Amino acid sequence: MSNDIRAQAAKYYDLCPDMPADVPFYKSLIAPETRVLELGCGTGRVLVPLAGVCGYIHGLDLSEAMIDVCRRKLEVEGVPPTKARVEVKDITNFALNQTFDLIIAPYRVLQNLEADAAVNGLFRCIRRHLAPEGTCILNVFRPKRDPEAMRRVWCSDEEKLSWEAAVEGGRVTCYERWLRMDPDKMVLYPELIYRRYQDGALVDEAVLKIAMRCYYPEEFEQLIVDQGFRVLRRWGGYEGELYGQGPELVVQFAQGS
Predict the structure, then answer these.
(1) What number of other Cβ atoms are within 10 A of residue 16's Cβ?
(2) Strand 212-213 vs strand 229-235: parallel, antiparallel, or unpaired?
(3) 24, 64, 238, 242: which is deepest, by most CB within 10 A?
């Protein structure tokens, strides 16, 4: 039996219309010679377009199903192995024996790490693979409620429609279900339910259970500093929002002095 929790959902991931407009943001930080490492590259939503503007990009993801989708995209785009490589690896415990000018983990990858040991492992790997003058960018969502309010109202067994997309011969819906959270560690455990309908009949259903660890603005920045890094820039999103005021918390940092 596969341990890939995203195996059944991978085929629906790219249908989501609500992804952040972060690709232009990352492109603006990349020069033609930049070597990029993407942690949690998934289906290549960010990696594939970046492959066209950087010197080399290397992507890691624990989901073999997601990596398979990414590889097919690279093949379709004609990106050679000298420009991009992706592989199945644990982003909290890997050794590539090379360093990178820019390390990224787009769309809240850090938040999927619910245990402190996993978070520490991620930062340890970043430190090991970041070039001396290189930088890393991590992001999380900015919680809309304070911790006490989150504990009171987050959990619900109601299914809420997240998005719907038309596909050949039918449609795919994605519902969210917020069944539980760890109130002490502030870890949310949402479930995403993908359903495909063909000619009006339900033909497939996939449930993706994930963890999302909450970070608040000062807490997120302090986490990076406590890991021995030096914060360079902060953003509240990808359209010029101020840190702590936009929908995202985005931080660029470098090796500590």
Answers:
(1) 15
(2) unpaired
(3) 238
Q: Give all strands (DSSP E) within the chain, no chain letters.
A: 35-39, 56-61, 84-88, 100-105, 130-141, 156-167, 170-182, 187-198, 201-209, 212-213, 229-235, 248-255
Q: What is the pTM of this model?
A: 0.96
Which among 58, 70, 62 is positioned nearest to 104, based on CA atoms?
58
- The CATH number given to 10-142+215-255 is 3.40.50.150
Torsion over CA: 190, 193, 194, 199 (sign): negative
pLDDT along the chain (257 residues), means of 10: 79 92 96 97 97 97 96 97 97 97 97 96 98 97 95 93 95 96 95 95 95 97 97 95 96 92
Q: At 96, which amino acid appears?
A: L
Q: For residues 11 and 194, give the distance between their C-alpha atoms in angstroms, rounded to a whole number.
A: 10
- Residues 225, 154 contacting (CB under 8 angstroms): no
CA separation, residue 38 to residues 76, 109, 123, 163, 240 (Å): 20, 10, 14, 26, 23
Distance CA 231, CA 237 (A): 16
Detail the DSSP E strand segments found in 5-129.
Answer: 35-39, 56-61, 84-88, 100-105
Edge-to-edge strands of the sheet including 35-39?
84-88, 56-61, 35-39, 100-105, 130-141, 248-255, 229-235
Quick one: CA dihedral 245, 246, 250, 252, positive or negative? negative
**Cα torsion for 244, 112, 129, 32, to the nearest 10°?**
-70
Angle, CA 98 vertex, CA 96 and CA 103 arms, to 5°: 85
